[in-house]
Amino acid sequence: QVQLVESGGGSVQAGGSLRLSCAASGRTMSSIVVGWFRQAPGKEREFVGAINRGGNLRYYADSVKGRFTISRDNSENSVDLLMNSLKPEDTAAYYCTAQARGAWAATTIKRASWYAYWGQGTQVTVSS
Fold this sequence. Notes:
By secondary structure, the chain is mainly beta. It contains one helix and eleven strands, in the order E-E-E-E-E-E-E-E-E-H-E-E. The strands form two sheets. Strands 2, 4, 5, 6, 9, 10 and 11 form a seven-stranded mixed sheet that branches. The longest helix is centred in the C-terminal third of the chain and has 4 residues, at 106-109. The termini are far apart.
C-alpha cells in the first residue's frame, strides 16, 4: 500500500507560482511512478505530468509544458510540482497519484485508470 498526501495548494494571481508537494509513505519514491492530475469543476480529470521510478524521466501535458516542473526529493520521499506562469485555466483540484507496477510508457502514464493510489487532492485557484 502507498499513502499519498498533497500539500501546498492555495490562491494566486495569474502569472504567479505555486509549489505542490506529494509525500509518500509505504513505498519509496524510487519504486513507484508518480503522476499529477487535475480536475476542474464540471470537467474530466486531466493528466498534468509524471516522473518515473529512476527520477530521470518526466512527461508533461502540452498545456503545462515549459511552465510546470516535477522534481523528486528522495530524502523526504516526496515529489514536488512547481507551477510557474499560472493561468486562470490552471484552476483545479490537483491530485498526486502513484503506481508501483507496470512499465513507464507515454501512452500509459497519461491514463488515470492506470494508477493504483491517489491522494486526497489540493485546490489551486488562479485569479485574473
